[in-house]
Amino acid sequence: MGAVRVFGASDVGEQFDIGVLANGAATAVVVDDALDSQARVVARAASELRRARLATEAARLTARPNVGQEIGDVVEVADAALGLDAARYRVAATRFRYTRERGPRAEMQLTLSIP
């Protein structure tokens, strides 16, 4: 989602992510009569845009398991082949896999979103 327009009881607020909009992202419209001030309408628009950004999968990373890894953590990824130098992502989901095929092996897959 690249933009959010919120209609409150008497106010309208908008938030944009220009980079995402340039790639053809959609615009969401929210109607909430319980929002009775401009500040609340703008805060709701920012919240909806943030929620959409966190729900968008940016990358997946497979690594050795880390028992301290939690959803919501911010991680930095560095990979010269991909041109990443301490690129920051937020962990949106984790998945643990253990297999005994070809010897015991454990791995953790992280689904990453924009921080």
Write a structural description:
- The chain has 115 residues and is α+β, with helices and mostly antiparallel strands.
- The protein folds into 2 domains: 3-55; 57-113, no CATH class.
- It contains 2 helices and 7 strands.
- The strands form 2 sheets. The chain has a 4-stranded antiparallel β-sheet. Strands 2-1-3 form a 3-stranded mixed β-sheet, with helices on one face.
- The protein is elongated, with a radius of gyration of 19 Å.
- The model has no long low-confidence stretch (mean pLDDT 88).
Observed structural traits:
2 domains; 115 residues; three-stranded mixed sheet; alpha+beta
**What fraction, in percent, of the residue positions are helical?**
10-25%
Beta-strand percentage?
over 45%
Structural classification:
alpha+beta
Task: Give the biggest beta sheet.
Answer: 4 strands, antiparallel
